[in-house]
Amino acid sequence: MFRRLREGLAKTGRALAGRLKAVVLGRKVTPETLDGIEEVLLSSDVGVEATAALMDRLRAANRNGELLDGGQAVPFLRAEMAAMLAGDGRDIAWAPSGPTVVLVCGVNGSGKTTSVAKLAGLLRAEGRTVVLGACDTFRAAAVEQLSTWGERVGVPVVKQATGADPAAVAFDAAEAAVARKADVLLVDTAGRLHTQANLMKELEKISRVIGRRIPGAPHEVILVLDATTGQNALSQVRIFGEAVRVSGLFLAKMDGTARGGAVFAIRREVKVPVKFIGVGEKQEDVERFDPKAFVDALFGEE
To answer: Does residue 217 contact residue 258 with C-beta atoms inside 8 Å?
Structure first.
C-alpha cells in the first residue's frame, strides 16, 4: 500500500520534497538557505499561509540553535508538515443507526464519478454493504459509467432515465438503502461549475430530500477536487460549502500532478479535512488520507 502511495505522489514528491532536499542537504541553515526553502514551498502550491507558518517554525528553530545543519531540515520539515495536516474527522461520519449517507459533489471533469466508484470498492473491501445512487441524470454517459462501475465492484445502482429529477432518484436510492439494510448509500451528483447558482440550489434540494427519508442525512458531504488544479481548488471548497455542508475532501488525480502540495494550503485555509486521495486509474487506487503516511510518501521514505 505504501508503494502505491509513493508511486502516486511521485510527481509532487519530485517537485516539492526533491527540490527541498537539493536546497538543504550538505549545507548549513543560513538566511539564504531559508529563503530557498520558502521559494520551493511557494512554487510547489503549498500556499502563502501554510508556507508562512512553516517558515515561522523553521526560522524560530534556527534562531534557538535547534536547526543549524541542512541534514536536520528534512526531518524537521517532515514532522511539521505532517502536524499541519493532522486533525480530527478523517474517517467517515458514520450514522448511529441505519444507512450512512455520503453525498458526493464536484465540478465538471474533477473525476467525481470514478472517485465515487473507488469509494464504493474501498468500502466493499472493508466489508460494508453499499448502494449507489446515480443522481447525475443530465448525462446518460454518467449513469452508464456508474452502472458499469457498480457491476465491477459488486454494488447495486439505483437509477432512472436521463433527464429525471435528481432529487427523486436520491429519494429512491435512500428507500433502497433502507430496504436493503445497507451500511452506506453513496450519492453521485451531477458535475457542476461552482458559479452555476441553479445547479447549486439543486444540490441543496437533493440534500433536503435525502434528509426527509433518512433523518440526519447526508451524514457526510464529500467534495471531489481535481488535484491538478492546485490552489484553485480553494475557491471550490468555499463556494460548494455555501450550498451544502462540505465535511470532507477527496483529492483525485494525485498521480497526474506535481501540484499536490496544495493539500497543505487547503488544510490551512479552509479547515476541511482531506479524507481520501486517488493515486491512479485502477479501482484499488484510492487511499484513506493519513497525514504521516502522505508526508513520508512525499519524501520517498517509509
So the answer is: no
Q: What is the DSSP letter of 166?
A: H
Contacts of 188 (CB under 8 A, 6+ apart): 104, 112, 113, 116, 132, 133, 134, 135, 136, 142, 146
Opening angle at CA 288, ends 91 and 39, nearest 5: 110
> Which of 302, 275, 296, 238 is closest to 77 using CA atoms?
296
Phi then psi for 73, rounded to 5 degrees? -70, -40
Q: Distances in Å between the alpha carbon of 299 and those of 16, 70, 148, 290?
A: 8, 15, 36, 14
CA 51 to chain centre: 20
Tell me the average pLDDT across 126-147.
Answer: 91
Number of C-alpha atoms within 13 angstroms, CB side, residue 18? 8
Residues recorded for the chain: 302
Percentages helix, strand, coil for the chain, rounded to the nearest 5?
55, 15, 30
Please say whether the beta carbons of 207 and 244 come within 8 A.
yes
Sign of the torsion formed by the C-alpha atoms of 191, 195, 196 and 202? positive
Identify the band that residue 1 occupies on the pLDDT scale cut at 50, 70 and 90. Answer: low
Q: Tell me how far apart the alpha carbons of residues 60 and 55 are, in angstroms, rounded to a whole number.
A: 8
Provide the grid cell at 295.
508526508
Nearest alpha carbon to residue 246 among 198, 283, 194, 285: 194
Task: Return the amino acid letter for 161.
Answer: A
Separation of alpha carbons 76 and 57, rounded Å: 9
Across 76-80, 197-201, 232-236, which has the greatest mean pLDDT?
76-80
pLDDT digits (tens, 9 = 90+) for 13-63: 888 889 999 999 999 999 999 999 999 999 888 989 999 999 999 999 999
Task: Tell me the C-alpha distance between 87 and 99, whole Å.
Answer: 26
